[in-house]
Amino acid sequence: MNSPAIEFDAVFRRLGGRDVLAGVDLCVAPGETVALVGDGGAGKSTLIRALLDLHAIDRGRIRLGGRAHTERRARERLAYLPERFQPPYYLHGHGFIEYMLALYGVRRADAPVGTTCARLGLDDELLGRSVRTYPPDTGQLLGLAACLLSRRPLLVLDDPMRALDADARLRLREALAGYRAAGATTLLTSRAVADAGALADRVAILHQGRIVADASPAELPARLGTHDLESAFAAAVAERGRAVGRTRLRERPAPSAERHEAAGPKGEGRRAKGEGRRAKGEGPRAEGPEGGGRGTEGPGKGPRGKGPGRDVGAFRPQADARVGANERPARVRFAKTPPRPTGRGSQGKGPGIKGPQHGPRQPSRGPRPLPRPRPSALSLGPGPSTPRSPAPGSCA
Protein backbone atom coordinates (compact mmCIF):
# COMPACT_ATOMS: atom_id res chain seq x y z
CA MET A 1 0.00 0.00 0.00
CA ASN A 2 1.38 3.39 -1.01
CA SER A 3 1.80 5.97 1.73
CA PRO A 4 -0.10 9.28 1.39
CA ALA A 5 1.63 12.05 -0.49
CA ILE A 6 0.76 14.50 2.32
CA GLU A 7 -0.42 13.58 5.81
CA PHE A 8 -1.44 15.89 8.66
CA ASP A 9 -2.03 14.07 11.94
CA ALA A 10 -3.43 16.14 14.87
CA VAL A 11 -1.37 19.22 14.06
CA PHE A 12 -1.46 22.00 16.67
CA ARG A 13 0.06 25.43 16.34
CA ARG A 14 -0.47 28.18 18.95
CA LEU A 15 0.28 31.74 17.97
CA GLY A 16 -0.59 35.02 19.67
CA GLY A 17 -2.42 33.39 22.59
CA ARG A 18 -4.79 31.31 20.46
CA ASP A 19 -4.75 27.99 18.64
CA VAL A 20 -4.29 28.81 14.96
CA LEU A 21 -4.20 25.08 14.22
CA ALA A 22 -6.30 23.06 16.65
CA GLY A 23 -5.78 19.44 15.64
CA VAL A 24 -5.78 19.34 11.82
CA ASP A 25 -6.24 15.87 10.29
CA LEU A 26 -5.94 15.63 6.50
CA CYS A 27 -4.54 13.13 4.00
CA VAL A 28 -3.81 13.68 0.29
CA ALA A 29 -3.41 10.55 -1.82
CA PRO A 30 -0.87 10.38 -4.69
CA GLY A 31 -2.29 11.85 -7.91
CA GLU A 32 -5.11 13.63 -6.07
CA THR A 33 -5.96 17.33 -6.07
CA VAL A 34 -7.26 18.66 -2.75
CA ALA A 35 -8.49 22.20 -2.16
CA LEU A 36 -8.31 23.64 1.35
CA VAL A 37 -11.06 26.26 1.67
CA GLY A 38 -11.53 28.74 4.50
CA ASP A 39 -12.05 32.37 5.43
CA GLY A 40 -9.26 34.76 6.26
CA GLY A 41 -7.58 33.75 9.50
CA ALA A 42 -8.78 30.16 9.35
CA GLY A 43 -5.19 28.85 9.31
CA LYS A 44 -4.65 27.91 5.65
CA SER A 45 -1.35 29.72 5.12
CA THR A 46 -0.13 28.66 8.55
CA LEU A 47 -0.76 25.02 7.67
CA ILE A 48 1.11 25.39 4.36
CA ARG A 49 4.10 27.03 6.08
CA ALA A 50 4.12 24.27 8.66
CA LEU A 51 4.20 21.73 5.83
CA LEU A 52 7.28 23.46 4.39
CA ASP A 53 8.92 23.58 7.85
CA LEU A 54 8.75 27.38 7.85
CA HIS A 55 6.64 27.24 11.04
CA ALA A 56 7.32 24.87 13.90
CA ILE A 57 4.31 22.92 15.18
CA ASP A 58 3.57 22.42 18.87
CA ARG A 59 2.05 18.95 18.58
CA GLY A 60 1.16 16.44 15.91
CA ARG A 61 2.90 14.99 12.88
CA ILE A 62 3.34 15.99 9.23
CA ARG A 63 4.69 13.53 6.65
CA LEU A 64 5.57 13.89 2.98
CA GLY A 65 5.61 10.61 1.09
CA GLY A 66 6.17 8.68 4.31
CA ARG A 67 9.01 10.94 5.52
CA ALA A 68 8.97 13.59 8.22
CA HIS A 69 8.40 17.07 6.83
CA THR A 70 11.54 18.31 8.62
CA GLU A 71 13.78 16.19 6.37
CA ARG A 72 15.24 18.00 3.41
CA ARG A 73 14.90 14.98 1.11
CA ALA A 74 11.15 14.92 1.76
CA ARG A 75 10.73 18.53 0.59
CA GLU A 76 12.79 18.03 -2.57
CA ARG A 77 9.76 16.40 -4.23
CA LEU A 78 7.55 19.49 -4.18
CA ALA A 79 7.27 22.88 -5.87
CA TYR A 80 5.73 25.77 -3.94
CA LEU A 81 3.98 28.95 -5.06
CA PRO A 82 3.44 31.45 -2.21
CA GLU A 83 0.50 33.79 -1.86
CA ARG A 84 0.65 37.02 -3.92
CA PHE A 85 3.89 35.98 -5.57
CA GLN A 86 5.90 38.58 -7.44
CA PRO A 87 9.17 37.73 -9.25
CA PRO A 88 12.30 39.83 -8.62
CA TYR A 89 11.77 43.19 -10.30
CA TYR A 90 15.31 43.39 -11.72
CA LEU A 91 14.82 40.33 -13.97
CA HIS A 92 12.93 39.90 -17.21
CA GLY A 93 10.59 36.97 -17.86
CA HIS A 94 13.09 34.73 -19.67
CA GLY A 95 15.73 35.39 -17.02
CA PHE A 96 13.34 34.39 -14.22
CA ILE A 97 12.39 31.13 -15.97
CA GLU A 98 16.04 30.22 -16.52
CA TYR A 99 16.88 31.07 -12.92
CA MET A 100 14.09 28.85 -11.53
CA LEU A 101 14.99 25.95 -13.85
CA ALA A 102 18.57 26.13 -12.60
CA LEU A 103 17.35 25.97 -9.01
CA TYR A 104 15.19 22.92 -9.77
CA GLY A 105 18.00 21.26 -11.70
CA VAL A 106 16.13 21.13 -15.05
CA ARG A 107 17.76 22.03 -18.36
CA ARG A 108 15.93 24.54 -20.50
CA ALA A 109 16.24 22.32 -23.59
CA ASP A 110 14.34 19.54 -21.80
CA ALA A 111 11.53 21.74 -20.50
CA PRO A 112 8.54 22.78 -22.68
CA VAL A 113 8.93 26.45 -21.84
CA GLY A 114 7.13 27.82 -24.88
CA THR A 115 4.13 25.49 -24.57
CA THR A 116 3.65 25.99 -20.85
CA CYS A 117 4.00 29.77 -21.02
CA ALA A 118 1.65 29.99 -24.03
CA ARG A 119 -0.98 27.99 -22.13
CA LEU A 120 -0.87 30.62 -19.39
CA GLY A 121 -0.96 33.55 -21.81
CA LEU A 122 2.74 34.48 -21.53
CA ASP A 123 4.12 35.18 -25.03
CA ASP A 124 7.71 35.92 -26.02
CA GLU A 125 7.15 39.67 -26.18
CA LEU A 126 5.90 39.68 -22.57
CA LEU A 127 8.70 37.43 -21.35
CA GLY A 128 11.28 39.77 -22.90
CA ARG A 129 10.12 42.71 -20.83
CA SER A 130 11.24 43.64 -17.31
CA VAL A 131 9.27 42.12 -14.47
CA ARG A 132 8.75 45.54 -12.89
CA THR A 133 6.37 46.37 -15.75
CA TYR A 134 4.14 43.32 -15.12
CA PRO A 135 0.71 43.62 -13.51
CA PRO A 136 0.11 41.52 -10.36
CA ASP A 137 -1.75 38.71 -12.14
CA THR A 138 1.06 38.30 -14.70
CA GLY A 139 3.64 37.83 -11.96
CA GLN A 140 1.43 35.17 -10.37
CA LEU A 141 1.12 33.31 -13.66
CA LEU A 142 4.88 33.52 -14.25
CA GLY A 143 5.49 31.89 -10.87
CA LEU A 144 2.97 29.15 -11.68
CA ALA A 145 4.76 28.50 -14.99
CA ALA A 146 8.04 28.00 -13.12
CA CYS A 147 6.34 25.51 -10.77
CA LEU A 148 4.84 23.55 -13.68
CA LEU A 149 8.20 23.43 -15.48
CA SER A 150 9.96 22.04 -12.39
CA ARG A 151 8.62 18.52 -13.05
CA ARG A 152 8.01 17.94 -9.34
CA PRO A 153 5.43 15.22 -8.43
CA LEU A 154 3.92 17.41 -5.70
CA LEU A 155 2.62 20.94 -6.21
CA VAL A 156 1.67 23.21 -3.27
CA LEU A 157 -0.15 26.44 -4.15
CA ASP A 158 -1.16 29.03 -1.54
CA ASP A 159 -4.26 30.83 -2.85
CA PRO A 160 -3.25 30.90 -6.54
CA MET A 161 -6.58 32.40 -7.67
CA ARG A 162 -6.14 35.59 -5.69
CA ALA A 163 -5.70 38.84 -7.68
CA LEU A 164 -6.49 37.09 -10.99
CA ASP A 165 -9.02 38.31 -13.52
CA ALA A 166 -11.51 36.05 -15.26
CA ASP A 167 -9.23 35.26 -18.22
CA ALA A 168 -6.28 34.42 -15.98
CA ARG A 169 -8.48 32.19 -13.80
CA LEU A 170 -9.59 30.21 -16.85
CA ARG A 171 -6.00 29.75 -18.03
CA LEU A 172 -4.94 28.64 -14.54
CA ARG A 173 -7.70 26.02 -14.42
CA GLU A 174 -6.67 24.60 -17.78
CA ALA A 175 -3.00 24.44 -16.78
CA LEU A 176 -3.75 22.67 -13.48
CA ALA A 177 -6.09 20.23 -15.25
CA GLY A 178 -3.28 19.22 -17.60
CA TYR A 179 -0.87 18.89 -14.66
CA ARG A 180 -3.38 16.68 -12.82
CA ALA A 181 -3.89 14.52 -15.92
CA ALA A 182 -0.15 13.81 -15.91
CA GLY A 183 -0.54 12.09 -12.50
CA ALA A 184 0.83 14.81 -10.24
CA THR A 185 -0.45 15.61 -6.71
CA THR A 186 -1.70 19.11 -5.89
CA LEU A 187 -2.62 20.80 -2.61
CA LEU A 188 -4.01 24.31 -2.97
CA THR A 189 -5.79 26.81 -0.75
CA SER A 190 -8.56 29.19 -1.71
CA ARG A 191 -11.21 31.49 -0.30
CA ALA A 192 -13.59 30.95 -3.22
CA VAL A 193 -15.52 27.72 -2.85
CA ALA A 194 -16.65 27.70 -6.50
CA ASP A 195 -13.07 27.88 -7.80
CA ALA A 196 -12.02 25.10 -5.43
CA GLY A 197 -14.86 22.89 -6.63
CA ALA A 198 -13.85 23.40 -10.25
CA LEU A 199 -10.18 22.60 -9.63
CA ALA A 200 -10.09 19.84 -7.00
CA ASP A 201 -11.16 16.24 -6.52
CA ARG A 202 -11.84 16.90 -2.83
CA VAL A 203 -12.77 20.01 -0.87
CA ALA A 204 -11.73 20.31 2.79
CA ILE A 205 -13.24 23.19 4.79
CA LEU A 206 -10.90 24.65 7.43
CA HIS A 207 -12.50 26.82 10.11
CA GLN A 208 -10.92 28.04 13.36
CA GLY A 209 -8.00 25.67 12.98
CA ARG A 210 -10.04 22.49 12.39
CA ILE A 211 -11.27 20.53 9.39
CA VAL A 212 -15.06 20.76 9.70
CA ALA A 213 -15.97 19.05 6.39
CA ASP A 214 -14.10 16.93 3.84
CA ALA A 215 -15.74 15.42 0.74
CA SER A 216 -15.87 15.67 -3.03
CA PRO A 217 -17.54 18.71 -4.62
CA ALA A 218 -20.57 16.58 -5.49
CA GLU A 219 -20.94 14.89 -2.09
CA LEU A 220 -20.33 17.92 0.14
CA PRO A 221 -23.71 19.70 -0.47
CA ALA A 222 -25.65 16.46 -0.05
CA ARG A 223 -23.86 15.65 3.20
CA LEU A 224 -24.69 19.05 4.69
CA GLY A 225 -28.24 19.20 3.29
CA THR A 226 -27.70 22.04 0.81
CA HIS A 227 -27.86 22.48 -2.97
CA ASP A 228 -24.50 24.11 -3.82
CA LEU A 229 -20.99 24.48 -2.47
CA GLU A 230 -21.43 28.02 -1.13
CA SER A 231 -24.41 26.99 1.00
CA ALA A 232 -22.55 23.89 2.15
CA PHE A 233 -19.60 26.04 3.23
CA ALA A 234 -21.88 28.38 5.18
CA ALA A 235 -23.65 25.46 6.87
CA ALA A 236 -20.37 23.82 7.91
CA VAL A 237 -19.04 27.07 9.37
CA ALA A 238 -22.28 27.72 11.26
CA GLU A 239 -22.32 24.20 12.70
CA ARG A 240 -18.74 24.61 13.86
CA GLY A 241 -19.65 27.91 15.55
CA ARG A 242 -22.57 26.31 17.41
CA ALA A 243 -20.35 23.44 18.56
CA VAL A 244 -17.72 25.85 19.88
CA GLY A 245 -20.42 27.82 21.71
CA ARG A 246 -21.78 24.68 23.40
CA THR A 247 -18.27 23.66 24.45
CA ARG A 248 -17.56 27.05 26.01
CA LEU A 249 -20.89 26.98 27.82
CA ARG A 250 -20.09 23.59 29.36
CA GLU A 251 -16.64 24.75 30.40
CA ARG A 252 -17.91 27.91 32.07
CA PRO A 253 -17.56 27.63 35.91
CA ALA A 254 -20.72 27.64 38.03
CA PRO A 255 -21.36 30.73 40.19
CA SER A 256 -20.16 30.46 43.78
CA ALA A 257 -22.74 29.63 46.44
CA GLU A 258 -21.21 32.16 48.83
CA ARG A 259 -22.39 35.04 46.65
CA HIS A 260 -26.03 34.04 47.21
CA GLU A 261 -25.72 33.30 50.92
CA ALA A 262 -28.05 35.47 53.00
CA ALA A 263 -29.54 33.21 55.67
CA GLY A 264 -31.51 34.38 58.67
CA PRO A 265 -33.36 37.58 59.55
CA LYS A 266 -31.90 41.04 59.73
CA GLY A 267 -28.60 41.01 61.60
CA GLU A 268 -27.66 37.32 60.96
CA GLY A 269 -26.73 36.94 57.24
CA ARG A 270 -23.38 37.65 55.72
CA ARG A 271 -24.57 40.83 54.01
CA ALA A 272 -27.07 41.77 56.69
CA LYS A 273 -26.83 45.16 58.37
CA GLY A 274 -24.81 45.18 61.56
CA GLU A 275 -22.76 42.05 60.67
CA GLY A 276 -19.52 41.37 58.80
CA ARG A 277 -16.72 43.58 57.79
CA ARG A 278 -19.02 46.33 56.50
CA ALA A 279 -21.19 46.63 59.60
CA LYS A 280 -21.85 50.18 60.80
CA GLY A 281 -20.45 50.95 64.21
CA GLU A 282 -18.35 47.75 64.52
CA GLY A 283 -14.64 46.99 64.04
CA PRO A 284 -11.32 47.68 65.69
CA ARG A 285 -11.63 51.43 65.14
CA ALA A 286 -15.00 51.60 66.87
CA GLU A 287 -14.34 53.78 69.90
CA GLY A 288 -16.68 56.19 71.45
CA PRO A 289 -17.57 57.51 74.83
CA GLU A 290 -21.22 56.67 74.42
CA GLY A 291 -20.76 52.95 73.62
CA GLY A 292 -23.79 52.68 71.37
CA GLY A 293 -23.41 55.44 68.82
CA ARG A 294 -25.45 56.20 65.76
CA GLY A 295 -25.48 53.51 63.12
CA THR A 296 -25.10 50.41 65.32
CA GLU A 297 -27.93 48.31 63.99
CA GLY A 298 -26.79 44.81 64.82
CA PRO A 299 -24.64 42.70 67.15
CA GLY A 300 -21.70 42.56 64.67
CA LYS A 301 -19.55 39.47 64.19
CA GLY A 302 -17.34 40.49 61.24
CA PRO A 303 -13.69 39.53 60.81
CA ARG A 304 -12.55 42.99 61.84
CA GLY A 305 -13.45 42.39 65.45
CA LYS A 306 -15.98 43.77 67.90
CA GLY A 307 -16.25 47.13 69.54
CA PRO A 308 -18.58 49.18 71.70
CA GLY A 309 -19.58 51.30 68.70
CA ARG A 310 -18.87 54.90 67.98
CA ASP A 311 -20.88 58.05 68.31
CA VAL A 312 -21.24 59.67 64.97
CA GLY A 313 -22.13 62.93 66.62
CA ALA A 314 -18.81 63.05 68.46
CA PHE A 315 -17.01 63.50 65.15
CA ARG A 316 -19.09 66.43 63.99
CA PRO A 317 -17.28 69.79 63.87
CA GLN A 318 -18.46 72.05 66.71
CA ALA A 319 -19.34 75.68 66.16
CA ASP A 320 -17.07 78.27 67.74
CA ALA A 321 -18.74 79.76 70.79
CA ARG A 322 -16.80 83.01 70.45
CA VAL A 323 -18.40 83.75 67.08
CA GLY A 324 -22.00 84.79 67.01
CA ALA A 325 -24.66 83.22 64.87
CA ASN A 326 -24.74 86.15 62.44
CA GLU A 327 -21.07 87.03 62.55
CA ARG A 328 -18.35 85.91 60.23
CA PRO A 329 -15.05 84.78 61.69
CA ALA A 330 -12.16 87.15 61.16
CA ARG A 331 -9.77 86.34 58.40
CA VAL A 332 -6.29 85.37 59.45
CA ARG A 333 -3.71 87.48 57.72
CA PHE A 334 -0.23 86.16 57.26
CA ALA A 335 2.78 88.42 56.89
CA LYS A 336 4.33 88.23 53.51
CA THR A 337 7.97 87.31 53.36
CA PRO A 338 9.97 89.75 51.23
CA PRO A 339 11.40 88.17 48.13
CA ARG A 340 14.98 87.12 48.12
CA PRO A 341 17.12 89.49 46.07
CA THR A 342 18.49 87.77 43.04
CA GLY A 343 19.20 90.67 40.66
CA ARG A 344 22.08 93.06 40.12
CA GLY A 345 21.43 96.67 39.53
CA SER A 346 18.28 97.81 37.87
CA GLN A 347 18.24 94.95 35.33
CA GLY A 348 17.85 92.12 37.83
CA LYS A 349 20.76 89.96 36.62
CA GLY A 350 23.09 88.17 38.96
CA PRO A 351 23.40 88.66 42.74
CA GLY A 352 22.75 92.06 44.17
CA ILE A 353 20.22 94.14 46.06
CA LYS A 354 19.81 97.14 43.75
CA GLY A 355 16.86 97.61 41.53
CA PRO A 356 13.22 98.49 42.14
CA GLN A 357 12.13 94.84 42.02
CA HIS A 358 14.40 93.76 44.88
CA GLY A 359 13.25 95.92 47.76
CA PRO A 360 14.13 99.49 48.77
CA ARG A 361 17.19 101.15 47.29
CA GLN A 362 20.16 101.53 49.62
CA PRO A 363 21.08 105.09 50.64
CA SER A 364 23.70 106.74 48.46
CA ARG A 365 27.19 107.39 49.91
CA GLY A 366 27.90 110.41 47.73
CA PRO A 367 30.31 110.84 44.81
CA ARG A 368 33.44 108.79 44.81
CA PRO A 369 36.56 110.97 45.49
CA LEU A 370 38.99 111.48 42.65
CA PRO A 371 42.34 109.72 42.94
CA ARG A 372 45.27 111.78 44.15
CA PRO A 373 47.89 112.60 41.48
CA ARG A 374 51.11 110.69 41.79
CA PRO A 375 54.44 112.53 41.65
CA SER A 376 56.41 112.21 38.48
CA ALA A 377 59.42 109.94 38.34
CA LEU A 378 61.70 112.87 37.23
CA SER A 379 60.57 115.43 39.82
CA LEU A 380 59.51 114.67 43.35
CA GLY A 381 58.39 118.24 43.99
CA PRO A 382 55.17 119.86 42.95
CA GLY A 383 54.63 120.77 39.36
CA PRO A 384 55.13 124.26 37.84
CA SER A 385 51.46 124.88 37.49
CA THR A 386 50.84 124.63 41.22
CA PRO A 387 52.37 127.65 43.05
CA ARG A 388 53.85 126.92 46.42
CA SER A 389 52.55 129.10 49.25
CA PRO A 390 54.96 130.19 51.97
CA ALA A 391 54.76 128.55 55.30
CA PRO A 392 53.13 130.51 58.00
CA GLY A 393 55.55 132.69 60.11
CA SER A 394 58.22 132.67 57.42
CA CYS A 395 59.50 135.65 55.41
CA ALA A 396 58.75 135.55 51.72
Query: β content, as a range?
Result: 15-25%
Low-confidence stretches: 245-249, 256-303, 309-321, 345-350, 377-383, 391-396
Question: H/E series, N to C?
Answer: EEEHEEHEHHHHEHEHEEHH
> How many alpha or pi helices?
10
Approximate shape = extended
- Which structural class should the secondary elements be placed in? alpha/beta
Estimated helix fraction:
25-40%
Outline:
The chain is of the alpha/beta class and 396 residues long. It contains ten helices and ten strands.
Strand and helix map with partners:
Blueprint: E1 6-15, E2 18-28, E3 33-37, H1 44-51, E4 59-64, E5 67-68, H2 72-75, E6 78-81, H3 93-104, H4 113-119, H5 124-127, H6 136-148, E7 154-157, H7 166-181, E8 185-190, H8 193-199, E9 202-207, E10 210-215, H9 219-224, H10 229-251
Parallel strand pairs: 3-8, 3-9, 6-7, 7-8
Antiparallel strand pairs: 1-2, 1-4, 4-5, 9-10
Helix pairs in contact: 3-6, 6-7
Report what the structure shows.
The protein is an alpha/beta fold. The chain has helices at residues 44-51, 72-75, 93-104, 113-119, 124-127, 136-148, 166-181, 193-199, 219-224, 229-251; strands spanning 6-15, 18-28, 33-37, 59-64, 67-68, 78-81, 154-157, 185-190, 202-207, 210-215. The strands form two sheets. The protein has a six-stranded mixed beta sheet with strand order 6-7-8-3-9-10, sandwiched between helices. A four-stranded antiparallel beta sheet has the order 2-1-4-5. Strand 4 (59-64) and strand 5 (67-68) form a beta hairpin. Helix 3 runs parallel beside helix 6 (136-148) and helix 6 runs parallel beside helix 7 (166-181). The longest helix has 23 residues, at 229-251. The termini are far apart. 27% of the residues are buried. Residues 245-249, 256-303, 309-321, 345-350, 377-383 and 391-396 have low confidence and may be disordered.
